[in-house]
Structure formats: C-alpha cells, structure tokens
Amino acid sequence: MIGLAMSIFDNRLWSGKGLPAGRFGARVAGLSMALIWVATGLVLTWDRTGRESFGVQGDLPLHYHLVRTMVRALRDGEWWSPWAGLLNGGRGGDFFRFYPPLFYWLSGAISLLPGVGIIGALKLMTVLTVSFNQLGVYVLARSMFGKWESLTASLLSVMLPGVALIGINRGFLPQALAAGFVPLLLRGGIELLRGDQGWRPAAWLIAGMVGVVLTHAITTWMAAAAMVLLLVVWPEGLKWSGRWRLLLVAVGGAALTAVFWMPQMLELGGVRIGLQVARQHFSSYLLFAPAADGTVYRRAWAGLNDVASVVILVQSALALLVTGMALVRSGAVEDRSRGLSGWLRFALVATLCGMVMAMPGSEPLWRSIPGMSMLQFPWRWQPLVSTIAAIGVVAAWKSLRRVPADIGNPLATTVASILLLAGMLLTAALGKSHDNEQRAGELLTSSGNGSGQAITYDEAMRLQDEGSQEFLRYAANQVYFRPRTAETLFYPSTDKFGGLSIISGECVVDGERQASSHRAYRLRCTGTARARLETYAAPRWEATLDGHNIPVIIEPESGLMLVDIPPGEHQLHFDYDKWPRINLRWPAVRRAE
C-alpha cells in the first residue's frame, strides 16, 4: 500500500523530465499540482457540499451567521469591524475581537461575488481549505524531499482523516484553514534550526504565524506548543544561534499580529467565554468517553467521539510506526542533512503528545497546563498528526529503498499499509453526509419558534439537548462573546441592527444612519429624554452628542446602552473604537429611573 501511494505519480514527471525545461516547465508543474489539490478537495467534500442540507452540519450554522455579519460590515465599507452587529437579534457582540476574522474576511469577500451567496461561499471555502492544507504540507515536505515525494505527502495528508474530521465532518472551518498555515510555520522553524541562510526561513515562519493568529485562536495555542516541542527535541549539536534566530523571528511575527492578540489578552475577561468551555468540556471527549448524560445532544457527541477515538488511534499508530521505521534507518537516507532526522524526532514526540492528551487519565494535564482546557476536543490535534503520518510514509519508503530488506520489514510495511487503508476509509466515512435534504438557507434564516420571539438560555439549551433543528434558528447568537453585563436570551436571526428608541421624555428621531461600528441619529426633543440603543454596551462603545462625549449608561438586566438627551435639536452618534487601548474602563452601571 505504501509503495502504491508513493507511485501515484511518475518520478520523471515531477523531476521535470516529462515537461519543457526552464521556468515554463516549472509553471506547468506548479499549475498541475494546484489542479490536483483542488480536484482532491472537490472529491473529498463533494458529498457534503453537493447537498441542499449543506449549512446545518456541525458548526456551519454559526459560520453562516458570522459570514452574514461580516458581509454587512463589508458592504458598509468596514473592512475590519470587530463588533459583529447582526448577532444576538441585532444587539451585536464582541465576536471578531476575540475570534480571529481571516476566515470570515475571505468568506465574506467571496459571497459578495455575483451569484455566490453565503452558502456558496462556505461550500467554496470548504473545498479551498482542503486544497490549502495540501499546499501547506507540500511546502513543509519540500524542505526534506523532492517534488514528487512532497506531492505524495500532501495528498496523503488529506486522505488521512485528521482534516476530514475537523473541516468536513464537524465544519470547524477556521481551524481547518489555520491547520494549513501550521506547516509553513514548521518549515520556517526547521530551516532556522538547521542554519539555513537568507530571508526565506524567516518569511515562512512569519507567514505561518500571522496566518494562524488571524485564523484560529486554539490553533495558535497548538502551533506554539508544536514550536516548543521542535525546539526541545531538535538533535543535539545544533549551534545555539539557530535557536536564537528562531526565537527572534517568532517575536517579530508576534509583533506583527499584536494589534489583534493584545486585546484578547487584555480584555478576554470582559466576555462570557467560560460558558462555551463548560458546554464542551474536554472530559467528555477523551478516548471513548461515555455520554455525559442521556440527552440526544450528548449521545450524538459521544457517538462522534467514538469515531474520533478510532481516528486518533489509527492515525497515531500509523504515524508512530512509519516515523519510527524512517528514524531507525535515517542514517541511510540522503536527506538527513536537510533536517529529516530532526523532523522525525519531533514527529514522534508530537504524535505521543496527541495520544497522551486523549487518554482518560490525562485530566491533570488539561487542568494544569495553561490554556489547554480551551482546546475542548483532544482530536483538534489530529490535523498535525495527519501531516506527520503522511510525511512519515514518504520517509519510511525512502529509507526502505536504501536499506536491504530484513526480517522486520515485511511485517512493518504490512501493518503500515493496513493502517493507511483504514485511515482512508475513515476519511471517506467522515466526508459522507447523513443529514436530511432540508434546505439549509430556509432553516437558518426563518424566525425561531415561528414567532420571532426570544427564548431563555435554558430553553435554548433544552432545544439543543433534544437535538431539535429548531435550535438552528437561533444560531445567530454568540452568548459566549457578549459583554458580561449583557443578558443571555437567545434571539432569531435578523438583517437589521438594533435601533434607537425613546423610553422616556418627549423626543422624535428625524433621521438615522446605521453600520456595524457606527450609528448616527438626528433628534428633536421638547424636554429631557432618555434614549436606548438596542445594542449591548461594551467598553469600546462611545457616545457623542453634538460632537461632545456623553456618559453611556448600561441598562440593568438587559445590558443595552442608555443615554440622556437634553431639550433641543441634536446629532447623536455611537462609535465603536476598533483600536487597542490599555486602560479600558467599563461605563458605570446605573439603575434606569
């Protein structure tokens, strides 16, 4: 099986002998590989993306409404709008300040193309995400192998089930996209550690780091953990200059993204992120963990976790086996000077870490290692294991070709071939759709409960536990990223921002202009009035009346914004400050009179 995988493409083609010489031949080869990656993405995602029900599986309902919010911001000319104005029934939320926006930028831009729409953009992003993961693995493998071997590794990486579990089955599309940046980060690290000169190693590392940080916060944590492992396990004898160069470049990459991650570090305590972690607790997703309770929701997740547990075991066993085979014979592989042995050592340790974090007895690690509990699912690590296994297959094949057969080779290659085939079958099963043919667009955009009324958090959780598709009508909500002073009601989706209402006094709204991060109103008041903006108060919202700052009052229980207006004609503006500030102060909570 391994030999068949390595023979998918003729060596002469990817060495350039079957193509015109020079730059033209290289371009033809590059275009051919790109077409192969896109074709592979189409094949793996076809059953999901080809159905009318696409959009209701996994996390896709959340992505649908978040892309819808991003599209509205882009149409208003706000290319960076941390405030997600259409969430929570138009009351908004601080989502894009704490959840990286790159996936939603790309999806929003695609959906604005004629005839595409949001569902079409999500389908296209699913295909492109799988294709991009192959490109990332190819870039990493090229630091150790030739073109055709690297191409084979890139294809095997998505034929194994790590990316299929995360990106196709569960719809964790931002994480799946971020997984494609991790190999770029690792390539830069490898080249810096082995002492490669020039600007390319730093460019790879910074490109990977910036891509991960702007795409998925949890993958940022995992990428940082992977880089620490790479530093620790790299072969002895390396000059410390390589490690220092790596650290300096990493600091430079972090500086480039500080405008995004600094607010996360400084302001995360201002939102209800703990609710999400409590709902998806890691202990329910360790290897073959039983359902936390008897609800439909928990039983479904337990069934999925059983499949994910098999994925972890199959992928990890394959990665350990082929990486071990290659490492034992690495002295005979001509690519050792290019960092292959260092990668293999890292691969073994990283795979073992993925196994350990999934073990039932790993709770002390989850509780003691900072940030680890935010992973929620141990199988988030598996896209990296797919990369490790794919490169390990190539390395093992190269080593076997250079070492005379011994008594262990037939058994090891047979077991590896069985595991590789099992992984491919799991990928096919994970990509198959088992949902009904209900049109996703109709389900996601219609009003919840048939009346458009809000429901309580407990009622929403009950609908989710019952497995009711009615819950998807309220998927526009992101309770976890609301300000802590906001209530936790669930609202059906809307296409309008929360407007301004006069709750006391004599005042008329003569005109308005509303965008995600900016609201402007023209008022005529015959007496002192109190106005309410149907938008949750956050520390970055500021109100000005006729160009002068006025206090923002947080309405008790609802968490909406209140302002007092004196008599006369006025221009009232609300603006959300997008840029980081160190000393943020919440407006004082006053009881409405």
Characterise the protein shown here:
The protein is an alpha+beta fold. The chain folds into 2 domains: 2-430, no CATH class; 500-576, Immunoglobulin-like, CATH 2.60.40. Helices cover 53% and strands 9% of the residues. It is built from 22 helices and 9 strands. The chain has helices at residues 2-6, 11-14, 22-49, 60-75, 95-98, 102-111, 117-141, 147-159, 161-169, 173-193, 200-213, 217-233, 240-256, 258-267, 273-279, 296-328, 340-358, 363-368, 382-402, 409-430, 440-445, 457-465; strands spanning 500-504, 507-515, 518-525, 529-536, 541-545, 548-550, 553-554, 560-565, 568-576. The strands form 2 sheets. The chain has a 5-stranded antiparallel beta sheet with strand order 2-3-9-5-6, with no helix packed on it. A hairpin with a 2-residue loop joins strand 5 (541-545) and strand 6. Helix 9 packs parallel to helix 20 and helix 11 crosses helix 13.
Name the poorly predicted regions: 5-19, 447-451, 582-593
According to DSSP, the number of beta strands is 9
Spatial sequence of strands, sheet with the most strands = 2-3-9-5-6
Overall SS class: alpha+beta
DSSP helix fraction:
40-55%
From the spread of the alpha carbons, the general shape counts as elongated
What's the alpha carbon Rg, rounded to whole Å? 26 Å
Number of H/I helices:
22
Tell me about the largest β-sheet. Answer: 5 strands, antiparallel
What percentage of the residues does DSSP assign to strands (E)? 5-15%
Mean pLDDT: 85
Number of domains: 2
Give the CA-CA distance, first to last residue: 75 Å
